[in-house]
Write a structure and sequence with these properties.
Blueprint: H1 8-28, H2 31-41, H3 54-65, H4 73-78, E1 81-83, E2 90-101, E3 107-117, E4 121-123, H5 127-136, E5 139-140, H6 142-157, E6 161-170, H7 171-174, E7 185-192, H8 193-196, H9 198-206, H10 209-215
Parallel strand pairs: 2-5
Antiparallel strand pairs: 1-4, 2-3, 3-6, 6-7
């Protein structure tokens, strides 16, 4: 008996069924099992000596590098708010930053510079680097990281303004693709007075002048 030719709809249903079965099997697999399969698909032998514990190591590394997903930025800042009659610019610069590009899961790293103009409230200085880590330790893009830092500070203490500048090198540009080793991306987010008042913005940027001219990464 000759089987009837499969229709286009039949082929689509078959692909959908296969995809659903794969999704179920992946859901049931452990993180190390998925990583072991990844090694196999890359043409490696996961049983050779150097790779036997790699799935577990990668699992722990990825959990560490994305731990910001489980951190509440509001909780970081609310425990270090101080009432103070100080209205000059506060700057914390050269904050080291390491993150993972969400497009290729490759690192990008560099420096974050943060400034704000107080409006009756000050932040504990150590909380600003903690806030940077909270957002950096996620799958990220640099542009979103920059605005998230600025918005979190603005929402926490309602200052007159916030300025954030991020300088970073991206391994997805350095190791693959265009393979440019000396390029750096610079992004900024200006809120309140930093956006509306050119003098305030220029003062902030002038204090970063050596960093923005290539000495900062």
């Amino acid at each position: 008996m000759v089987a009837a030719p499969r229709t286009r709809e039949g082929k689509m249903r078959t692909r959908e069924t296969e995809a659903a079965e794969t999704a179920v099997s992946l859901k049931d697999a452990s993180f190390p099992e998925i990583l072991r399969e990844l090694l196999v698909r890359l043409g490696e032998d996961p049983d050779r000596e150097g790779l036997q514990r790699t799935p577990e190591r990668v699992h722990h590394a990825l959990e560490f590098l994305t731990r910001g997903n489980k951190t509440d930025p509001t909780a970081i800042l609310k425990d270090a708010l101080f009432t103070e009659n100080y209205d000059e610019m506060v700057i914390v610069r050269d904050i080291e930053m390491f993150s993972l590009c969400e497009h290729h899961l490759l690192p990008f790293f560099g420096k974050v510079h943060v400034a704000y103009l107080p409006n009756g409230k000050l932040l504990g200085l150590s909380k600003i680097p903690r806030l940077v880590d909270c957002f950096a330790r996620r799958l990220q893009v640099q542009e979103r990281l920059t605005t998230q830092i600025a918005e979190a500070i603005q929402n926490a203490i309602r200052p007159k303004g916030v300025g954030v500048v991020v300088q970073a090198r991206h391994l997805c540009m350095m190791m693959r693709g265009v393979e440019k080793q000396h390029s750096a991306a610079v992004t900024s987010a200006m809120v309140g007075t930093f956006r509306a008042d050119k003098r305030t913005r220029d003062e902030f940027l002038s204090l970063l002048d050596d960093k923005l001219n290539g000495a900062g990464i």
